Amino acid sequence: MDVTELASLAQEELLQIAGLPLHPLIVHTVVVLTPLTVLALLLGAFWPAARRRSGIVTALGALLVLGLVPITVAAGQSLAERIGPVPAVARHQAFGEMLLPWVIALFVVAAGQWAWFRYGDERVRRDSPGAARAMRIGLAAASVVVGSGVMVLLLLIGDSGARAVWGGLPS
């Protein structure tokens, strides 16, 4: 057995749990945690009390999503290779591979929002109220754009995945 075969075997073992493909198991974590993180980000952008209560939790949730998405995509690619060329799976895979840049942006905006309101807002509001207001508006706009983009893509991924799995079954 050469190194390539060993690496392939190791990857297959890592992308399974108890013989089951990892992708359908881990995808549900992403599907639940991502909308919760987007919701927390949007609440924090428009509701100061929610932002104060959530603190760094929103940024940590976004970081967790950022860590889970590449694992989910890799597990999905492994599963797609086992299944073979199926157009519905290829469509789902194409949507799934587009998610990483969006969750990077989700993390950047969530971390930026937390850092701004934790460290920068008070001082800048005192010294330059106009700049502080512009920053709050910019963060709110970024939260809406990134949150909307993540959610639309997540819905497209979920819909195409459900159609790939269940599309051929009679109603």
UniProtKB/TrEMBL annotation:
Every DUF2231 domain range: 19-166
Transmembrane segments: 25-47, 59-79, 99-117, 137-157
Name used for this protein in its record: DUF2231 domain-containing protein
Positions in coiled-coil regions: none
UniProt cross-references to InterPro entries, sorted A to Z: DUF2231_TM
Keywords annotated in UniProt: Membrane, Transmembrane, Transmembrane helix
Pfam families the UniProt entry points to: DUF2231
